[in-house]
Structure formats: C-alpha cells, structure tokens
Amino acid sequence: MPQISNFSPELKLARSSKKIDRSVAQxxxxxxxxxxxxxxxxxxxxxxxxxPVLKGKRGSKLVLHAKDASVIYGLGKAPELTPQEAAEWGExxxxxxxxxxxxxxxxxxxxxxxxxxxxxxxxxxxxxxxxNFTDLKSAPSSASSEKRTRxxxxxxxxxxxxxxxGDLFEVAALIPAIAFARxxxxxxxxxxxxxxxxxxxxxSATHHGIEIEVWNEKKxxxxxxxxxxxxxQGSAIPPRFLIARTGxxxxxxxxxxxxxxxxxxxxTGGVNLKTGDWRDLLSMRKDMCGCAAVxxxxxxxxxxxxxxxxxxxxxxxPNILGSKSVIxxxxxxxxxxxxxxxxxxxxxxxxxxxxxxxxCVKNKADYIIDVATLTGAxxxxxxxxxxxxxxNQDRFGKLVFRESDFAGEPAWPLPLSRRYGEExxxxxxDLTNMGKNRAGGASIGAAFLQNFVAETPWCHLDIAGxxxxxxxxxxxxxxxxxxxxxxxxxxxxxxxxx
Length: 498
Ligand SMILES: [Zn+2]
Known about the structure:
Layout: E1 10-14, E2 25-30, H1 38-41, E3 61-64, E4 70-74, H2 83-100, E5 104-108, H3 116-128, H4 143-147, E6 153-157, H5 165-186, H6 194-207, E7 211-215, H7 217-222, H8 226-232, E8 240-246, E9 256-261, E10 263-267, H9 278-282, H10 289-304, E11 309-319, E12 330-333, E13 339-342, H11 349-362, E14 367-372, H12 376-382, E15 387-391, H13 394-406, E16 411-413, H14 418-422, E17 431-432, H15 441-450, E18 458-462, H16 485-495
Bound molecules: zinc ion (ZN).
Zinc ion (ZN) is lined by residues 267, 269, 319, 346, 348.
C-alpha cells in the first residue's frame, strides 16, 4: 500500500528585509501602481526596463539567474486580488520557481496588500505547488528527487505586521493536510477504495493522535445503516464507515463539530447508468472529494491542537452496477428509521450521507458540516468558482460563508426552503431521493439531507463544481484541489474555546 508523504516547507517570518538570508532566491511581488522596491529595481538589467512585470501585470514574471538569483512576479491590481486567486497565483508562482530550480526562497510581500487572508493563501499555494504522487510509476521518485519538485523553505518578508508566527504555523499544518486530500482525490479507485482510504488515512492519523473507528460491512448491516448498505450492495468491493475523533481532552465544555464527507469511491450511477462523455465518467473517481476534505481537515485540526472536539465521519462505497444492485423503486429503511423510495440510483450521495448525518445526530453533535460532490445542478448554477452553501441556521451559515471566503474556497448561499422538501414526498415511503423534475436539483439534494439532521445547526457544502483547481494553478501535476480542508479548519478554529 503506498503512503502519502507528509510534507510542508519550512516557513519563517522576517519583519525586515535586512534580516533575511541573502543566499536564497529573492522573490519580489509587484502590484499595479506600486513602485518596485529599490532592492528589486537594482537587479533589473537595462534590457528589461520595459518588461510588463515592472508595471505589476498579473501573472507576468522576470527571472534573473545572476549572482543573486531573483524573480519579479506581477500580481495585478491589489484591490482585485481575492484569497481564492491568491492561492492560485501562489501555486502558479510556486510552479515557476520549481521549474527554475529555486526551492529556497525569500518572498518580499508588497505593502499594497495588507490582508492576512490573502497573504496566508498565497503562501499556502506556494507550499502546495508540485504536490504529486509517483508510487504507482515503475520507477517512483526517491525521497531526495521528490525534494527537488517542491519548495523547501519560504521566508516571508513583510515589514508591517500582516502575519503573526501563529498564522505561519497554521499554513504549515494546512499544506500537508490539503496535499493529503488532493492526492487522495486523484488516486485510482482501486487504491482509494473504502478500505484503501482507511489504510492511507490511518498512518497519518495515528501519528496525530486521532482515534479511529472503522465499521465494516457486517457492522454497517447490524447497525441497520440501510441506505449505505443499499448503495453498496451492487459492488464486490465492501463499504466502510470511518469515524475519526480528535480533541477529547478538551472535555464537555468544548463543542463537538461533526464533519461529514461523501465517500463514493467510484460512481457509475448504478442501474441508472451514467452515459455521458468518457472523461466525465473517469472523473467519477473523485466522487469522494468530500471524504478527502473532512479527513484532511481533521489532520490539520489535530496538528494545530485547536481546543475543540472534532469528529470526521465518512461513509465510503463505490456505486456500481451489478446483479445485486439496488433497483429504482426499491424502498429502503434508513439508519434513522425513515423509509426512502430510491427512484434514481445515481442520486446515491444523499443516501449514504443521510445515514452518516443521522449518526452525528444520534451522537449529539453540536454542529454538523457535510461536504459532498453532490449535484451537477450546483455546478450548473455556480460554475467552478463558488461552492453551494445550504443551512438550517442563519448564524451558522454566515460563519461558514465568511470562513470559506477567508480560506480562498468561497461558498455561496443557495435556498433551502420547505417547498423543495415538499417535492420529496412519496405515497409509498416517507421520502423519495428525487424531486419532481431536474429544476432546482441542488436545493432538492440539500432538502433531502435536511430530513436527517433534526434541529442540529448544519451546513451542507456542495463541491460538485469546485473540486478541481482554478486555471492559474493548472500547471500543477495534480488537479484535485483538496477543496474545503481550509474552510473546515477555519470553522473549527472559530468554534473552539479560546
Ligand atoms: Zn451518482
């Protein structure tokens, strides 16, 4: 079984450009309208005086391999840069630096961008550049050659106090956690199978003191998780229900945040077989990116020792067409006792999540967030820049909204009203898993889930359109974004007892 290596560059803060190591590559960031600082200006040869980077044009670069190696990189108009773009342009710059062989760098942050979220996300992107997994090649990279494909150390130079040491520790905890989620999302379905994910997660988790409980197919059956069982029954690959806990020592006074991730390790649609383009089907190995998000998040939360109790819960199974597959029209009893008519076997994510959400309610969660590549409708509605955000409590919804923006993974609120829920009424069973027609599919998926969270403050994040990277970072070897690891971390931090 391959292991996902744990990596984070060494991160250091320098308050003054006088205090930095001059032997490393100096990277000067420029925004439009900001005069390039003298140290950088002096490095530009006469032939480069008209270079667009000197005007701060976004994505432009000037690489100087002189005695003092340096890079000047344009970030565009400062007020237009969002945390999301900062992460993407940071990764873009990281890819450039790696290609140039500059693995130890000092980043001179421009005074025109005084925002901690933007600075943090930029460093995050830099640190994630080059994330890759080569264990499945006939000649995998050795540890030392792998080192040449990642930034090894970053000195962050900002003269005003944009970031504290603690902010850098946070980024250092997030980089390996996001890298873990990214690789997990990209791996083939036979490796990132339900048991494969358990194995890949276990080593990192035990290293962080995270407690793990795994339910196998027998336990899932004896607990009567009927919906998870129904989705899994068509496949010879057995399901798993993984529960990971951290922060028990903070006791009853700390709230308990449950993070639920959809773990469909491959989605054929089941009997409602998917018949689209082959590329769409190939991408269905990423139907477990919600699972990857919650597992990555709990790694970062445990690493940072946030004073909060967090439980990551993930139901995992492929959704395969087989002789034992659940059939449209079958009525199944959920873990909660509700009965569900499965009208469409391709709306399976909501089914396995329903049983996981009920598990959280049964165990008295104070807050629940689920992350899922749930609906094509959400992708149609919001494209690839915003994830869908649904909630049953305004206050909690606003917190998740704000933190997703800070984390560079902005979510956008979509409606969850009683009317959507009414479409799920059924004459034979308590509920069906489909609305009356295609319209409003993202809200109907969320309305289905709402039946299983009782009164617990809950948010549902639909990442169907956002689980891959945005374009400036697209030169990266791995396209899966590790979406929502950072957001879940931020929410846990806000809810923790400080
Ligand atoms: Zn499906």
